[in-house]
Write a structure and sequence with these properties.
Alpha-Beta Plaits, globular, 211 residues, alpha+beta, single chain, five-stranded mixed sheet
Length: 211
């Protein structure tokens, strides 16, 4: 079976002070991915090696950024590096479980993830065309870095707006005024980032359709 393997490596996982709490946050992020992207998930997102890594198998690359974003947000302010590879999975396919699967896609994703760490990046991709993969990866790196630099309060406001769709709904969820949400989104430059994310989503959809 050919599919996209997305692996994540928790940055400085050995230094986590509250591994149990981090584990709960990571599992919650995985559950959110599996719920929100059920149509794209081939093997559900799950923590690996305790809480040191995370993996998910996707049908194609169109949801890759949103999946990585959700996982990263879920463990904020901790960080995760990601690598995604489209290739063959030839072991454990029938299990539907990432820990039971293996094949060239996993081997290449492991190698790419090591290269991501070596280059001090947050993301890289090997989907089909290396030139386009690199351009997409650079865009994703900048977007993920922007998110990791947000404060706890800022990421809370951004996530509330993303999850609820309007400033009014986000404000109600947070128990604040709509103006407070508007001010926070403007302060972090959210409108510009939102437009870039929309363009990236279109690129990933067109790329998946072409390959």
């Amino acid at each position: 079976m050919e599919a996209c393997v997305l692996l994540g490596d928790v940055v400085e996982s050995r230094d986590l002070e509250d591994r149990a709490g981090f584990g709960r946050a990571l599992r919650g992020a995985c559950e959110a991915v599996n719920r929100e992207h059920a149509d794209a998930v081939v093997a559900p997102a799950t923590p690996l090696k305790g809480v040191d890594e995370v993996g998910v198998v996707l049908a194609d690359g169109r949801a890759v950024y949103h999946v990585a974003r959700r996982l990263l947000d879920g463990v904020h302010p901790s960080s995760i590096r990601f690598a995604v590879v489209r290739d063959e999975i030839d072991v454990g396919v029938e299990s539907g479980r990432v820990p039971a699967m293996d094949g060239p896609a996993f081997h290449r994703a492991d190698e790419l993830l090591a290269a991501v760490a070596e280059a001090s990046l947050l993301f890289d991709a090997a989907l089909a065309d290396r030139t386009l993969d690199r351009a997409i990866a650079d865009e994703v790196n900048l977007l993920l870095r922007w998110r990791t630099d947000l404060s706890d309060r800022q990421i809370e406001y951004v996530r509330a707006y993303e999850d609820h769709g309007t400033q009014a709904a986000a404000a109600e969820h947070l128990g604040v005024t709509q103006q407070a949400v508007s001010n926070e989104l403007r302060r972090v430059g959210w409108r510009f980032v939102e437009r870039i994310e929309g363009r990236l989503e279109t690129t990933l959809e067109e790329y998946a359709d072409a390959t």
